[in-house]
Design a protein that fits this description.
This protein is of the alpha/beta class. It has 15 helices and 19 strands. Bound molecules: NADP nicotinamide-adenine-dinucleotide phosphate (NAP).
């Protein structure tokens, strides 16, 4: 007996883990739709270009994509080319795995000045994401401020600090590498509104900052020797490791390094100053009373030509969705019968790639509980609709063409030279 017809919107980690789980639980055809011609979402466009080991997870998604029952449909934008309503009419099970692709906005005066970027656009730029290849951030500045104390902020300061040699085995596009190489950046500031104990860096990522060949990390406060308050064993271990790492930075030889990465804690951004473009940013010093963040009234100002906020993400609004507080309204993955959510769109932009595995299992369980067999046509009806709307769609085979072209054109040791526009991708695939 054939299982329910399934379509997954989004081909990032949560989309692929869901597909993988469903193949194990149901005898269903599973279609995965993405708005880009290429699959893998954040793995290709979000994970930093120098973190190639992390990107290797896509080989396990490839195994899923190559399963007989799974089919990839790239270059279809849900909400524009096809609506959620239409997909719900065509499929028994619709899974939303669209992530949170927009930046949380830094809502302070001056945040619309030239030279102020959100992490989604800046990371997209140095990752060759077709949406952001024309961003052209002006890196002609000595001082850069990155706001936020999470792993995305760390990624950004690391990519801006590494030398071209250190980036040689990455897949950063040439334009971004050149721009960073030519830039006179000397001082980077990574600024948290709370302290080192509250910072959300994972320890491997933080430790990397002590191993850079031309940049020295500097911590601008006295670090606590012991932890106050109560933490889970896991949190306590992570915090202690991070404090140890931050302390170890003071022993790094400074003199032979041209760039300085300043860890500024307890500073809340309050205003960005400039006429047309950013000249400086003002912070107010803060302190914690219990878990409450209090302002102290003490202001500091940092002159800089570039401000990047890495303060989390929010989902794009698509007609037919109820999005509240950065997630689609759902009950543990269930939006309504036959309509489910996985990944950041279900639970917000937290966790690492593997966290999405459990989301996929949850959706497979829900679908299994609510459907036993196929009712709606699914794939056959989608193919018909694609034809009637005259959509240009890529298959997984097309992606493999793009993939091998990119790998063939790479200058060793770079793993690939990314194609940067959708037009070029479609041309290569003769679509
Ligand atoms: P995140 O870990 O949630 O960090 C966001 C940071 O922004 C926090 O320090 C937060 O401070 C701060 N913030 C929020 N609003 C702010 C405001 N208005 N003003 C000043 N600061 C503000 O988010 P992320 O760095 O975007 O990362 C998203 C997820 O992807 C995380 O789970 C992360 O671990 C994961 N990720 C992992 C890797 C990796 O494993 N290598 C790489 C990249 C991303 P408060 O804590 O005070 O709210």
């Amino acid at each position: 007996m054939k299982g329910p017809s399934v379509v997954i919107i989004g081909s990032g980690p949560s989309g692929f883990y869901t597909a993988e789980s469903i193949t194990k639980n149901l005898n269903s055809d599973i279609d995965i739709i993405d708005r880009l011609p290429t699959p893998f979402g954040l793995i290709r466009g979000g994970v930093a270009p120098d973190h190639q080991t992390t990107k290797k997870i896509s080989s396990s998604y490839t195994k899923t994509a190559e399963k007989e029952k799974v089919k990839f449909f790239g270059n279809i934008e849900v909400g524009k080319d096809i609506t959620i309503e239409e997909l719900r009419e065509l499929y028994d099970v619709v899974v939303l795995a669209i992530g949170s692709e927009l930046d949380n906005k830094l809502e302070i005066k001056g945040s619309n000045l030239q030279g102020v970027y959100g992490s989604a656009e800046f990371v997209g730029w140095y990752n060759g994401h077709p949406d952001y290849v024309n961003l052209e951030p002006n890196l002609n500045t000595k001082n850069v401020v990155v706001i936020g104390n999470g792993n995305v902020a760390i990624d950004i300061v690391r990519v801006l600090s590494k030398t071209s040699e250190e980036m040689s085995d990455s897949d950063i596009p040439g334009y971004a590498l050149d721009s960073i190489k030519k830039s006179p950046i000397k001082n980077l500031y990574i600024v948290g509104r709370r302290g080192p104990v509250e910072a959300k860096f994972t320890n491997v990522e933080l430790r990397e900052m002590g191993k850079l060949s031309n940049c020295v990390p500097i911590v601008n406060i006295d670090l606590p020797n012991e932890l106050k308050g109560s933490y889970t064993e896991r949190d306590q271990r992570l915090i202690e490791k991070n404090l140890e790492t931050l302390k170890s930075f003071s022993t790094i030889e400074k003199n032979n390094k041209e760039k300085k990465l300043n860890f500024n804690f307890f500073q809340k951004p309050i205003e960005i100053i400039g006429d047309e473009k950013v000249d400086s940013i003002k912070f107010e010093k803060t302190k914690l009373e219990g878990s409450e963040l209090r302002s102290t009234g003490e202001i500091i100002e940092i002159n800089c030509g570039l401000v990047i906020s890495a303060i989390g993400y929010t989902p794009k609004d698509i007609p037919g969705l109820n999005i509240n507080d950065g997630v689609v309204e759902n009950d543990n993955g269930r939006i309504s019968k036959g309509f489910y959510a996985a990944g950041w769109i279900r639970r917000g932009p937290t966790g690492v790639i593997g966290t999405n595995k459990a989301d996929g299992e949850l959706v497979a369980e829900l679908a299994n509980k609510e459907f036993k067999n196929q009712i709606k046509d699914g794939r056959a009806a989608l193919v018909k609709m694609i034809k009637s709307k005259n959509l240009k769609v890529t298959s997984f085979k097309d992606w493999e063409k793009i993939d091998s072209f990119e790998k063939k054109n790479a200058v060793v040791p770079a793993p690939r030279k990314k194609i940067l526009t959708i037009k070029e991708m479609l041309n290569l695939c003769k679509i």
